[in-house]
Amino acid sequence: MAKKALFTLSLNGDQTDVAAAPDATLLETLRDGLGVLSPKRGCNQGVCGACTVLIDGVPVRSCLTLTARCEGHEISTMEGMNTDPVMEVLQRHMVASGGVQCGFCTSGMLMSARNLLAETPRPDREAVKSALSGNLCRCTGYRTIVDAICTAAEELAQ
Amino acid sequence: MTQILFPETLDQAVALLARHDEARPIAGGTTLVAMRNAGLVDSSHLVSLDRIPGLRGIERLADGRIRVGAMTRHADTAASDLFTGSLAVVRKAAGMIANKVVRNMGTMGGSVANADPAADYLPALACADAVLSVLGPDGAREIPILTYVQDWYETALEPGEILTAITFPAPEDAPSAYRKIARVSGDYATASCAMALTPDGQGLRVAIGACGPGPIRDVQAEAVLHGHLQDPQAVAEFAAALVAKADPVDDVRGSADYRLALIPRLIASVLSDLISAKEAA
Predict the structure, then answer these.
(1) How distant, in Å, are the alpha carbons of B12, B90, B145, B174, B269 from that of B177?
(2) Using beta carbons and an 8 Å cutoff, which residues of B are at the interface with A?
């Protein structure tokens, strides 16, 4: 068995030590090492967006990020968003509009949506579609997801 | 098992690459980690350029040239206001790479070093006459973009060399554009076209992507076309010269014949956009 490396990560505000393969991706370390399951392993090629997390507030693909380069940076996943007021509104509208079906893409979708609203509080529909263009959904046909983000943005702007 | 190394200077990185035969540099990871996930990387060591200062960022040099550090992310290039006029093509290409999240990760140096023929930067850099700065065990050198790609995924980079920066001539006051034909937004190109008008409005610089191992540019044909942009026959002959230099493959994004058919249409259409932009300016 190959020797594991010990990484010290800052995850959702807490310092965490975890052992993983030296070249483990952040997705592997989060799911298999830490039991953080909101980032999903879809394509494992950076295409589907289901593994999207924030590093220092910037959305990235955890499947394309080496764990080793995350030391010294702040990692945020859905597990750390429970008290985020913007995320609460996004989640509520996702449920209400039917934007969640199987749920596999949802945390990645919400990470991208959260980042969009941080940069552009009143996005138009095209901006929402563009912001989600790196997140694939195989259930909804996207319309209900775009609806949810647009109505959430309207509520938040009031 | 691949070890990840984090040198803190370029000299350390060059030394690490020289010490380990199977080592290779890694930048943003958008291609190399995807290949690792697919079981296609068996390097003993990956030498991360992540913690080396001075490799990120875009600056205007004293003589007006624009220098892009190899570790500059696509998102930063796409948002930079230094790529004006003839260099807007670089900014536009950056903004069409993959999707917003991947553009937060991938770097110009990583993309150029990987030299995927269907990726967006190479034609834009060829159109903009970029110069690549490289550091290796034998010191620093510069590679003009038009001599960089030598065959499919084969470049002028020698083993152990690191691409450190991409430098562009000072931007000229002339419109430029990048267009790609792709199956969906964010896919690699089926065919792409980077184009800049010359400042006198009479000539073109054109590079075609995804239709051969490297970007296709014909400087002699550009000289012949100069002064004849309004002549459809001259434009068609120019496009035919680029088609003659193309060497496309059949793949999931399109057949070789389809790509050859796209080249003249792309050229005519982007040219028409640039002439309108020039008239509007």
Answers:
(1) 39, 8, 18, 10, 11
(2) 1-4, 6, 26, 29-30, 33-34, 36-38, 46, 48, 50, 98-102, 104-105, 185-186
For B176-280, the fitting CATH number among 2.40.10.270, 2.60.40.420, 3.30.390.50, 3.90.78.10 is: 3.30.390.50
Q: What is the pTM assigned to this prediction?
A: 0.96
Same domain, A63 and A89: no
The ipTM value here is 0.93
Domain holding A67: CATH number? 3.10.20.30
Among partner residues B37, B99, B186, which is closest to A44 by beta-carbon distance? Answer: B37
| Alpha-carbon span B150 to B141, nearest angstrom | 17
Name chain B contacts of A21, Cβ cutoff 8 Å: 1
pLDDT single digits (tens) B28-77: 999 999 999 999 988 999 999 999 999 999 999 999 999 999 999 999 99
Residue A110 near chain B (CB below 8 Å): no
Q: List the structure tokens of A146.
A: 């775009």
Would the CB atoms of A131 and B100 count as touching at under 8 Å?
yes
What distance in Å separates the CA atoms of residue B53 and residue B96, rounded to the nearest whole number? Answer: 27
